[in-house]
C-alpha cells in the first residue's frame, strides 16, 4: 500500500523531493486558490528583524529585550509573522506568563521580532514581513537566518537586543542560533510557562528560551524566565568542576559534513571534556526520535492552523506545510506517540552514563536564501539538516553555541544536551567551551 508520508520522508534524502513537493503545492493551490502576495509592510529596521520596534532612549543602560512575535505582550497584536493575524487579531489583553519577571525587573523591551509565518518553516523566511537579514558572512547572497525564531536571532546578532526570547518546538531557537552565529537555549519542557504563547504542540513540545551573543548574556536571559536562575548558575560555576570530570557522550549522525563533525570534536577536545562515543544503537534510536518529533510537530501545526487553509492572507507555502501535517495525522502520528515513553527512557539511560550529549546543531553550514523565494522542497531540505527535534520529544534542555570551523569564516554550531532541569550545569559547560575556543 502506498504511504505518502513514508514516501515524503524518504524523498527528503533523494532528488524525488524536487518534484514531489511542488506537486503538493500545486494541489494546495487548486484546492484553496492561489493568491497574489499583498504589498509588504515597511520594516521598522533595515535588517527586517522586527515587526514592531521600540528603540531605547539614548543613554538607557537597561538590558534590551526583544520578544518573538509568537508571545503575547499586553496592548500589542501577536501576528505570528502572519498577514492574516496582523489584520484580523485584537491586541493581547495581557502579557504571556513568561514575561512576568522581565516586567518586574524593568528591562527595556525593544520590540516584537519577525519569524517564519505561523512558526512552521525551518528557513526563517517570511514572504509578507520580509526575511530577516543574516549578517553572518555578509555576502551579497545572504545565508538563511534559520527559523522559526529568525528575527530574534538577527536582532541579537546585529546588536539590536542584548537578549531575545524565542520559542522552540523542534529546533526553532537552536536553528536560527546556529545560522546566525549566536547562542540559543531550548529549555526543559514545562519549566517556563507557555500561557499566552501561540501554540504548535503545547502539550508535548513547545518551549520558550533565551538567545544571546554569548553564554553570559544567555544566563541573563534565562534569569528573566526562571526566578533564581542566575544564583544557580553561579553555584554551578563556583563548584569548580573541571572539564575532564565532565563526561560528554559524542553522537555521530550519518550525512553530517566531515568539517562540521571535526569542528565539534575540536571544540570538545580543547575544552578538555572526557568524551565517550555513543554507539550505533543509540544513534538509530535518535534518528527514529527525530522522525517522530517532526511528525508530532507537523500534526500540531495542522491541528492549530488548519482553520487558515482557505484564507488568502496566509501564504501557499505555509498552507502546504500545514497540509502535510494532516497526512501525517492519518499515517505516522499514533505510532510516533507510542514511542515517546521509550525514547524518554533511552535518554534517561544515556544520562546515567554521561553528563551531556554533544553533536552538531546542523549537519552542514546554512544554505543561502533561495533567489526566487522559498518552497516546501527547500523547507524539507532544511528539515533534513537539523539535529534538534529528538531533544524536544524527550523534553530535555539543549544549548546551541558557535564554534570555529577550520578554513571557514563562518562558525559551526555545537549542540549540548543535558538531562531535565540541568540548564545551569549546561550553560556552565557551554562557558567552558566558549572560554577554551576563545583562547585558541
What percent strand? 5-15%
* CATH architecture identity: Alpha-Beta Complex
Low-confidence stretches: 1-36
Instruction: Note the gap between the termini.
Output: 56 Å
Q: Outline, from the CA principal axes?
A: globular
Name of the CATH homologous superfamily: Amidase signature (AS) domain
User: What is the β-strand count?
Assistant: 11
Oligomerization state: single chain
For the largest beta sheet, what order do the strands appear in spatially?
Answer: 1-3-2-4-6-5-10-11-9-7-8
* Total DSSP helices: 16
Mean pLDDT: 92
- Give the % helix: 25-40%
Relevant terms:
single chain, 440 residues, Amidase signature (AS) enzymes, eleven-stranded mixed beta sheet, 16 helices, 13% strand, globular, disordered N terminus
Amino acid at each position: 500500500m502506498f504511504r505518502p508520508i513514508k514516501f515524503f520522508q524518504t524523498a527528503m534524502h533523494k532528488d524525488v523531493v524536487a518534484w514531489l513537493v511542488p506537486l503538493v503545492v500545486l494541489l494546495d493551490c487548486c484546492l484553496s486558490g492561489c493568491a497574489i502576495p499583498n504589498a509588504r509592510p515597511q520594516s521598522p529596521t533595515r535588517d527586517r528583524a522586527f515587526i514592531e520596534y521600540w528603540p531605547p532612549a539614548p543613554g538607557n543602560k537597561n538590558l534590551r529585550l526583544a520578544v518573538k512575535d509568537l508571545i503575547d505582550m499586553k496592548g500589542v497584536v501577536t501576528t505570528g509573522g502572519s498577514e492574516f493575524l496582523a489584520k484580523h487579531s485584537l491586541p493581547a489583553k495581557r502579557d504571556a506568563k513568561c514575561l512576568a519577571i522581565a516586567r518586574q525587573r524593568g528591562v527595556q523591551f525593544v520590540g516584537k521580532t519577525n519569524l517564519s509565518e505561523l512558526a512552521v518553516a525551518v528557513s526563517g523566511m517570511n514572504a509578507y514581513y520580509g526575511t530577516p537579514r543574516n549578517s553572518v558572512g555578509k555576502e551579497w547572497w545572504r545565508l538563511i537566518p534559520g527559523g522559526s525564531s529568525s528575527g530574534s536571532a538577527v536582532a541579537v546578532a546585529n546588536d539590536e537586543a542584548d537578549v531575545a526570547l524565542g520559542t522552540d518546538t523542534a529546533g526553532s531557537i537552536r536553528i536560527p542560533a546556529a545560522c546566525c552565529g549566536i547562542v540559543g537555549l531550548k529549555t526543559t519542557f514545562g519549566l517556563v510557562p507557555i500561557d499566552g504563547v501561540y501554540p504548535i504542540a503545547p502539550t508535548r513540545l513547545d518551549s520558550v528560551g533565551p538567545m544571546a551573543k554569548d553564554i553570559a548574556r544567555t544566563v541573563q536571559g534565562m534569569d528573566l524566565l526562571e526566578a533564581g536562575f542566575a544564583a544557580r548558575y553561579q553555584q554551578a560555576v563556583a563548584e569548580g568542576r573541571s572539564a575532564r570530570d565532565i563526561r560528554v557522550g559524542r553522537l555521530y549522525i550519518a550525512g553530517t559534513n566531515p568539517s562540521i563533525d571535526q569542528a565539534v570534536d575540536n571544540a570538545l577536545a580543547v575544552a578538555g571534556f572526557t568524551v565517550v562515543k555513543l554507539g550505533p544503537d543509540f544513534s538509530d534510536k535518535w534518528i527514529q526520535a527525530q522522525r517522530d518529533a517532526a511528525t508530532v510537530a507537523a500534526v500540531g501545526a495542522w491541528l492549530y492552523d488548519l482553520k487558515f487553509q482557505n484564507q488568502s492572507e496566509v501564504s501557499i507555502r505555509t498552507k502546504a506545510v500545514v497540509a502535510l501535517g494532516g497526512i501525517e495525522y492519518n499515517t505516522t502520528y499514533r505510532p510516533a506517540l507510542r514511542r515517546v515513553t521509550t525514547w524518554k527512557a533511552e535518554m534517561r539511560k544515556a544520562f546515567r552514563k554521561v553528563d551531556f550529549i554533544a553533536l552538531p546543531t546542523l549537519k552542514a553550514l546554512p544554505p543561502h536564501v533561495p533567489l526566487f523565494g522559498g518552497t516546501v522542497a527547500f523547507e524539507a531540505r532544511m528539515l533534513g539538516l537539523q539535529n534538534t527535534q529528538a531533544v524536544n520529544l524527550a523534553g530535555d534542555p539543549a544549548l546551541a553555541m558557535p564554534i570555529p570551523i577550520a578554513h571557514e569564516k563562518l562558525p559551526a554550531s555545537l549542540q549540548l544536551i543535558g538531562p531535565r532541569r540541568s540548564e545551569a550545569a549546561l550553560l556552565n559547560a557551554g562557558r567552558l567551551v566558549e572560554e577554551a575556543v576563545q583562547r585558541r
